[in-house]
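Regression test case RT-17, inverse folding.

Input:
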């Protein structure tokens, strides 16, 4: 099996208080991705997603759309090369 792709994604815009973390978790689980999503103190949301490359890429497209009450302005995406394997995808508080 190929090495999974791990991306760190910082989502900016109106992404807190609109169900964004739960939206991310639901979609990550459907795509069989692992990692986490959490709110940041500056109002952004941080996502780390790990899995098959095509699924992670599909996930970033969904993150760009966001749930209906969100307003995603930008995604800052960086690849993480030495991130440990995650067991599942979770919302971190």
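Golden output:
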């Amino acid at each position: 099996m190929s090495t999974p792709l791990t991306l760190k994604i910082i989502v900016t815009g109106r992404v807190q208080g609109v169900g964004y973390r739960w939206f991310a978790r639901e979609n990550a689980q459907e795509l069989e991705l692992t990692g986490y999503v959490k709110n940041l103190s500056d109002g952004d949301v941080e996502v780390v997603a790990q899995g098959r490359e095509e699924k992670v890429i599909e996930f970033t497209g969904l993150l760009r759309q966001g749930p209906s009450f969100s307003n995603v302005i930008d995604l800052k995406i960086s690849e993480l090369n030495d991130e440990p394997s995650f067991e599942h995808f979770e919302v971190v508080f």
